Amino acid sequence: MVATEQLPIPQMTARRFGARCLPALTDEALYERTGVRIAFTGREGGVSLAPYASLNLGNHVGDEPEAVERNRALLLEALDAADVPLVVPSQVHGDEVVSIDAVSSEAIDEARAAARAGADALVVTAPDVAALLCFADCVPVVIVSPTGRFAVAHAGWRGVENGVAAKAVRALARADAAELGPDAAGTYNVYVGPHIHASCFETGADVRDRFATRFGPACIPDDRHVDLLEALTLGLEEAGVARERVADAGVCTVCAHDEYFSYRAEGGVCGRHGAVAFRKAR
Fold this sequence. Notes:
Blueprint: E1 13-17, E2 22-26, H1 28-34, E3 36-41, H2 65-78, E4 86-87, E5 97-100, H3 105-116, E6 121-124, E7 130-135, E8 139-144, E9 150-155, H4 157-162, H5 164-180, E10 189-192, H6 205-215, H7 228-238, E11 246-248, E12 273-279
Parallel strand pairs: 4-7, 5-6, 10-11
Antiparallel strand pairs: 1-2, 2-3, 3-12, 6-9, 7-12, 8-9, 8-10
């Protein structure tokens, strides 16, 4: 287990990884402190062909399965994690959280089976396991503890409403209780990757009403849009996360669909970029 001193305030910067110079957003200070590598990928760096070009990491969108597997391998190789087992859930816009507590082949097989059955968050308390979730407008969330434990969550608007990221925080806090005490969540860094921002997330009145009822008026900027980031942050605060430790990448996938996949901007036919995290044993 790594040391549990306070984490640096979260900051994401763009860098390129590996021989293919694969671009991703990451936090180098976090990596230096904890050994946890987080990365939010974009479109560039893979082998998929249009309309999935090129680093499509989703295997449910119509892309060639071989291309998806190659893209995932290229990502892990670029991040210096080619030897780390990867768990990728079947995302169902729910609130199921799968925990991965060991790196034995039996534990990985069990976690993969549970994740394939449907999950929208992975909580990883063991080193040498990589978690990958895939996105194209939904909100990618990576939560990191000073202990080196972490979680990755997929929050579409239903996932924001049902609190899947907050549920992952609570699961992580239970695992951290012995080292960090009952207020563990207040020590966590939360990284929010590229997603559809409020200016582009136009909804019907029913969705706006649901968010206003659940999170209050702060997440309803006007009579047409919902601010998923604000709603997500309010839910995380309820789980004990400090607002100043929630870092947004500041990228709207609809506006930047040349760099990131966007379901809305591309008419529903596109690839998926990823949020990945792992910690190699030291």
